[in-house]
Amino acid sequence: xxxxxxxxxxxxxxxxxxxxxxxxxxxxxxxxxxxxxxxxxxxxxxxxxxxxxxxxxxxxxxxxxxxxxxxxxxxxxxxxxxxxxxxxxxxxxxxxxxxxxxxxxxxxxxxxxxxxxxxxxxxxxxxxxxxxxxxxxxxxxxxxxxxxxxxxxxxxxxxxxxxxxxxxxxxxxxxxxxxxxxxxxxxxxxxxxxxxxxxxxxxxxxxxxxxxxxxxxxxxxxxxxxxxxxxxxxxxxxxxxxxxxxxxxxxxxxxxxxxxxxxxxxxxxxxxxxxxxxxxxxxx
Length: 284
Description:
The chain is mainly alpha-helical. 75% of the residues lie in helices and 0% in strands. It has one domain.
C-alpha cells in the first residue's frame, strides 16, 4: 500500500506548483522580473538546503557544466513564457497549454534516446493537440487567447527539452544538485534583462517573490522528490497532471477568473489523455 503521508505530500507539492502561475496576476511586474525573482530566491534556498544536508554539489566535468548552463537558459525561457502566457491571456490558458508538454515529450524522446515512436503515441499527440485547439476562439495574432496559447506552447516545448536534459543527468546527480545549477544559471542569464525592462518593485512584491521562489519552487520541488520514494512514478504523474486544475480553481477563488467553456473542454481532453496514459503505465 502507498504511504498516505506521501500521497498528501505530493498533492501539497503539486498544489504549490499550481500556485506559481497565480503570481503572474498578483504581481504588477513584467514576466521576466517575476522569473528572475523566482530563480534567484529558489537558488538561495536550494543552496542553503544543500549545505545543511551536506550534499555533494560538485559537477564532474566541463561538458556537464556547459549542459547544465544550457538547461538553465531553457528553464528561464520556460518560466518566462509560462508567466507571460498567463499575463496576456489567463491562468487557465497558461496552465492548459503547459499541460500539453507530453505532446513534445512523445515526439522528441525517441529522437533524444533512440526509442521507438508507437501508433498509440501518435494518437496521444493528436488528442492533446485537439485539446489545445479547442481552447482557441479565433486563430488570429490579434486575439490575446491565441497569443497566450502560442507563448504557452513555447513554455511547454522548453519544459520538454528541460525534462529530457534532466533525464540525461538523473543517474549522475541528485535532483537538488541539478535544480541548483539550472536555477543559478537562469538567475545569471536573466540578470541583464532587468536593465531592459521598466518596472517598479515594492517591499510587498519582494515578499511575494520570496514566497514564489522558496515555497512554490524550492520547497515544492523538495516535497515532490521526497514523495517519490513511497509513490510509484505513474501515480505521481497522474497527480502532477492536476496542477492545472488546482491553478484554475485558485484563480476562480482569488481572481474570479472563470474559464470559458472552450477552456474547460480543452483542459478535460488534455488532462484525461495524460491520466489514462499514466494509468496504463506508459511514459509521458
